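Prompt: May I have another protein with tokenized structure?
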Amino acid sequence: MPLTLTPLLGIPLIRHGDNLADILVAGLRDSDIKLADGDILVLAQKIVSKAEGRMVNLATVTPSERAKELAAQSEKDSRVVELMLRESNAILRVRVGTIIVEHKLGFICANAGIDHSNVAPDPTPNPSPNEYIWRGESQDWVLLLPQDPDQSSRVIREKVESKTGKRIGVMIIDSHGRAWRIGTVGMCIGLSGLPAVVDERGWQDLFGYTLRITIVGVADELAAAASLVMGQAAEGTPAVHVRGFPYPLREGSLRELLRPKEQDLFR
């Protein structure tokens, strides 16, 4: 079966509290896609973070002394650096324009995944004390990664499966840089209902040679493909339908993709 990736049409700008499962089912209908067993939905991190209320107004952030030190080294806003510290297990590298961290979710990334692009606050006419205050200045707002992308994927998958009666996978992706390479690529930061890796050790190649070390990061491969379909700027296509994934679906987790520190040769 060929692998096909189709962007879902009509996905609106997402706000805190939106039901992503309902929006995805409507997007499938608007795109004339009838969900089938084995299909996968790939979601941009931004829509999940927005639905979960992970937007932060920088006016509410007081930077620590450590944040001020790192901000001076990196020439970044000390309030954003303070959020990086809160979202990270450790700071690994600092240079002008970039801070490399070990995120609380376990992976290595730049700037703790905190994003300014395509972030705008919800205009709330009568905000409660727990709601974000509308300032009308999108540069004052940043977006954090979901607190538990595996759990977010699981909740969305179960809701979509309940509405459609089909067994599917759901994956959340973000754009990450890579050591020794220029440019960002889509990478998996959370998933449910599909494998993150496929261990091909013991498989045979075309000439009967038995593979000994091959473990394929299939979730990252699919994330990169979906990221091409989504785009990075004003395309407005944060959800992609996938059909023809060449491996059996099973429950998976981001943990499968994270190399243990004792095996990490590059830190």
Observations:
- The CA atoms of residues 37 and 167 lie 5 Å apart.
